[in-house]
């Protein structure tokens, strides 16, 4: 017998004792009194049974949801690059994504404590911030990519073979349909053909540099823009005062030098640009 049935029988017996044979004064009912009292007794009895049943359901539901982790709604952000120039985006963890033309990237506003997960459609260059406790996962139509901290190029256009080339570090690639894994090291490229991975040496080192020829930033904090520029400038650097770090800017560069980029930013944001040695200083 289930716990619910046991509870119902207990209530049934209790109501029989209390109301089945006693009148309002606590005296035994006559046959006629019992008949008159039957309807009222039935209503009270089944009302109590219903209350017990509802209580059991609530208890079960509370236990069920308590056992499972609470579902937290996440705000998803979609970045879409409809142009041929590279759209540069810096994620919450500091990882930088260079989106090629006709490419979309979906990611949460805040990554979970266990992992950093994004979805990619198209071509992109990733420069992932290292964190061994929070792996970085990329979902594409056919494969799943897992990294800890590295730089690599992904081609996942519809209608063309999937391809991944690692610039530095190591990347794990999993074929979803077969649950087949392959590890790709720096200087290597993996290509998916006829549902099989093929590992070769990188044949095109220029594939990484091409993402930097024409770059755009869309409503990006100035601190993120300067960080990307300085990563790829070996001699000249651009700095800004802390008060300007969160100022947002939409701007495009086409094979510009660090000096010309500093001047363009200062003009767009109405800032002063001064040079101290190999560093350009932006200030109000």
Question: Can you summarize this structure?
Answer:
With about 280 residues, the protein is an alpha+beta fold.
Entry keywords:
284 residues, 5 helices, alpha+beta
Could you please describe the fold and organization of this structure?
The protein is an alpha+beta fold. Helices cover 28% and strands 38% of the residues. The chain has 5 helices and 18 strands. The strands form 2 sheets. It has a 15-stranded mixed beta sheet that branches. Strands 15-18-17 form a 3-stranded mixed beta sheet. A hairpin with a 4-residue loop joins strand 10 (170-175) and strand 11 (180-185).
Show the helix and strand layout.
Layout: H1 3-19, H2 31-67, E1 76-81, E2 86-90, E3 96-99, E4 103-108, E5 116-127, E6 136-139, E7 143-147, E8 151-156, E9 163-168, E10 170-175, E11 180-185, E12 188-193, E13 196-201, H3 206-209, E14 214-221, H4 222-231, E15 237-240, E16 248-254, H5 258-268, E17 272-276, E18 279-283
Parallel strand pairs: 2-14, 5-6, 15-18
Antiparallel strand pairs: 1-4, 2-3, 3-5, 4-5, 5-8, 6-7, 7-10, 8-9, 9-12, 10-11, 12-13, 14-16, 17-18
